[in-house]
Amino acid sequence: MTDPATTDPATTDPIGIEIRNLYKIFGANPEAHVAAVRAGMTKAELQARHQHVLGLSDINIQVAPGSIQVIMGLSGSGKSTLIRHINRLIEPTAGEIVIEGRNVVAMPQAELRAFRRHKTAMVFQKFGLLPHRTVLDNAAYGLEVQGIPQAERYRTAMRWIERVGLSGFEKSYPSQLSGGMQQRVGLARALANDAPILLMDEAYSALDPLIRYDMQTVLLDLQQEVRKTIVFITHDLDEALRIGDRIALLRDGSVIQQGTAQDIVLRPADDYVANFVQHVDRGKVLKVGAVMQARHGFDAPEAALPDAALPDAAIAPEASIAEALQQMAASRLQALRVQDPQGHTIGVIPFQAAINAYTGQHGGQHDGQHDGRQA
Amino acid sequence: MTWLTSFPQLKSAWLRELQRVIDDGFRSFTRSHGDMIEGLFSPLQTMLIWFERLLLGTPWLLVLAVVAALAWGASRSLRVVIGSVLTLVLIGLFGMWDDTMKTISMVLAATLLSIAIGLPLGILMARSQRVQRIISPILDIMQTMPSFVYLIPVVMLLGIGRVPGLIAVVIYAIPPMIRLTNLGIRQVDREVLEATDAFGSSAWQKLVKAQLPLALPTIMAGINQTIMMALAMVVIASMIGVQGLGQPVLRAISNQYFTLGLFNGFAIVGIAILFDRISQAWGKRLQKHQEASHD
């Protein structure tokens, strides 16, 4: 339920991205070292012995159509390198990127250009706006490159300028706008292209926290409307957890964990990830659905539950455990019934389970949760 | 032990022979191909004469009006307009109008030619490291070689007159145009270029929509430099028959006419300042998007 991407291929419009066995080695003769890296040579060894830098190592990520895939990592982890492979701003050393059955890596120049014009749009950390052009001409740039007549591209661009909240600034130059406003121009330019894939390279990292939160909301609202396949790069875990349908954690050029926000917070793959997520506000990130004890469709529910009687008070599986705890505390209950939008009871969340999840304690109930999520 | 006290040099007979072979070779090349090469450059001759006739044939009042209009269009500043008109009026009053028009036509032709050749070369240089490695030393030679030296083969090939003068001026004045075009394009923000790439721009679209407009202030500085250097060559070019303010200066040198030299010198300074102010003001107005910055 936390992954609408795989369960909900709602429209045919969005397209998926499949990254397969992608390697990027920087240096004088990168091809020569792929085999060694495949055989398990580490980044440090490659650097010390061959003076080549391992940028990306065996990346396999499937981005479902219409979902938001966050790629997260600290600086130097290779996340910006990775996103530039999707529209081939950087050439990979080995591997494939398959979009609509076509391998982007093998595209000839002309096809690659058409692919960039029609299938992808990109938003950059430092905005990448053309300083000598007005907001309107910047927003219309992608359409201009496609050869769309001026009147039409201005009409489309104006619509998106209004949609990102910049009406009245269309005649301004980028240097006259604040950082947040400039990034809105970057977003308008990307959306005006109407490409099914949106690549956002640390798009909000240069913005201050309040504006960043604001822009995240803009993106999530827009996503409800336009259903793009979004690849979003960030170094900010809170941002990743807030907007990502799925998150891939990158370290030293390798994916160390991928999954939903719940997966990563509840079951960090190693100490590095655990260290990362320990300061997260778990109460907000974790959803009732991920923590509850599920009631299996045809099993006798009572057997799985500690208490035979189901409580009356109900909560939605999408609610956060902070909300669940609040509700239980307010009405002095020991447990809540978890109820889906159709009104079916799908599980129960005891007070103790919610508290354990909130504090990050691993209690005995966890086995039950595993079953629950896989159901 | 003479090789310790005086530098050991090639035998003078060898040197003489070497010079003779090169000279003869070039002379015979001139004799056999001189006409053909002159024919090749005849469009330049036509252009130069056309420019000169245009400026000399136009009534002086109209020339003043056009200069004033250009100054206003480029700078939107009354001071620049008044300064430009006043300079030309003074030049006219002191009897140097015709020579000045000839010089201006020469400088304009040389500048246009330098832009026409220098801009594409600068673009090529910015696009390829190899082209840059080839062109850079050539530009160094062009800028440091005394102009009299390359006047010799030019005169041998084309004789004395406007065209060899124009070529000499262009050789001297074109390096900043090429260098600054190259520099301007190379300095364009990589992030901006990456964005144009990401939206699928072709190489031409990238050049016309991003690189050239963003390099324009630097290119304008190159044009400004080219104009100034073309003016500086006017006196030297007059030695091979280029008409204009250089001729009286030359006469003044050989006859020690101090005042004549001074007047014409000041006229050259006057039009230099005029060209400089107008082209710089224009360059600044081209980047007005950078003036109003957000704080």
Automatic annotation (TrEMBL), chain A:
UniProt-listed SUPFAM superfamilies: CBS-domain pair (SSF54631), P-loop containing nucleoside triphosphate hydrolases (SSF52540)
Membrane topology: Peripheral membrane protein
Keywords attached to this entry: ATP-binding, Cell inner membrane, Cell membrane, Membrane, Nucleotide-binding, Transport
A Gene Ontology BP annotation from the UniProt entry: glycine betaine transport
Main localization (coarse): membrane
CDD domains: ABC_Pro_Gly_Betaine
Oligomeric and partner information: The complex is probably composed of two ATP-binding proteins, two transmembrane proteins and a solute-binding protein. The complex is probably composed of two ATP-binding proteins (TmoW), two transmembrane proteins (TmoV) and a solute-binding protein (TmoX).
Protein family (similarity comment): Belongs to the ABC transporter superfamily.
Protein's name in the database: Quaternary amine transport ATP-binding protein
Classification of source organism: Bacteria, Pseudomonadati, Pseudomonadota, Alphaproteobacteria, Rhodobacterales
UniProtKB/TrEMBL annotation, chain B:
Segments traversing the membrane: 54-73, 80-97, 103-126, 147-174, 226-245, 257-275
This protein's GO CC annotations: ATP-binding cassette (ABC) transporter complex
Any GO BP: glycine betaine transport
Highest taxon of source: Bacteria
Membrane topology: Multi-pass membrane protein
Keywords, ordered alphabetically: Cell membrane, Membrane, Transmembrane, Transmembrane helix, Transport
Cell compartments where the protein resides: Cell membrane
Gene Ontology molecular function, alphabetical: amine transmembrane transporter activity; carnitine transmembrane transporter activity
Domain ABC transmembrane type-1 intervals: 100-279
Protein family (similarity comment): Belongs to the binding-protein-dependent transport system permease family.
Name by which UniProt lists this protein: Glycine betaine/proline transport system permease protein
Native source organism of the sequence: Paracoccus versutus (Thiobacillus versutus)
